[in-house]
Design goal:
The chain has 378 residues and is of the alpha/beta class. 39% of the residues lie in helices and 13% in strands. It folds into two domains: 234 residues, Aspartate Aminotransferase, domain 2 (3-Layer(aba) Sandwich), CATH 3.40.640; 115 residues, Alpha-Beta Complex (Aspartate Aminotransferase, domain 1).
Length: 378
Amino acid sequence: MIPFNIPLYTGNETAYIDEVTGSRQLGGSGLFSKKCCEWIETKFGAPKAFLTTSCTHALELAALLCDIKEGDEIIMPSYTFVSTALAFVLRGAKIIFIDIRPDTMNMDETLILPAVTQKTKAIVPVHYAGISCEMDTVTDIAQRHHLRVIEDAAQGFMAFYKGHPLGTIGDIGCYSFHETKNFTMGEGGAFLAKDAETIARASVMRDKGTNRSQFLNGSVDKYTWVDLGSSYLPSELNAAYLYAQLQNADEVIRKRMSLWNLYHKYLLALSESGHIELPCVPDGCVHNAHMFYIKTKYQGERIRLMNYLKECGIESAFHYIPLHSSPAGKKYGIFFGEDRFTSKESERLLRLPLYYELSEEQIAYISECIGSFYGITK
């Protein structure tokens, strides 16, 4: 069986975890947490990075920092994971779902402005498959209407838009280091902040609303409860695992890109003959090979292809059920405009195995099996 995913392991993870356990300092904000944050800040030119226990918590922290309140409206795509919406629903906001572009599966930037009202507080672009949304349009609308831009870059770590790392373009950026992502700490994430006020408040909110970080650096003589917050700090064990991978980040991306490009090469003929569609990478976008997907003609064909691949020993997976069609999505949000592409395109999309340990031979085999399904053999 070729599994759909195998979490990344680069070699030094165990040694770094042993170093943490030997130190008996397991709590958050220790040596490896600082190393991870400094690596992100240096690599991306980000003013400040904070590790979090998940991208979900990074988004919740963003909602707190943006003072999202009951009655506020948040614009985002429906084709995303529940956490993108839930972080704002927990603050009482109403979610305004808009349609996606069929080429990238990202929010259609031309539909943002019509959805803006006096209640709109933020835009949340989701960079699907590590391919950027059209951020020039997003930020222009946000600036003209005094809205916050919170990037859900869960899949966008080490991907770029016109030379800018995803997660650094908006006001706040949120990453995921879940075991399904390019880099993992099991469960974990990161939060990027730009301005001094957000950075200072984030350091308090992620530490249960206390000024503990100031106490630890000696700027206050005792720490106490000063603001809203929660426990968003991952343990040093998680940070140690992640840091081993960040040290090998360029090689990991290089290998994943090589595998992604092989899929594209082997499946191009099937695309050109109209059997399937391949991912689109717009000009100005540099993706991170987070995912390789194909689109079948319709949902029933996708189901049959998934079953066929399973018979061939290959695990594949569809992805999100559009949030606006879910019970909670209907309760906490509305779909603005016409659902031209979100449901239709999501029903055709099929993700193929893509992970660091996948071999070129396995890519060739998977591609051959897909060709065989469509009656095309070498």
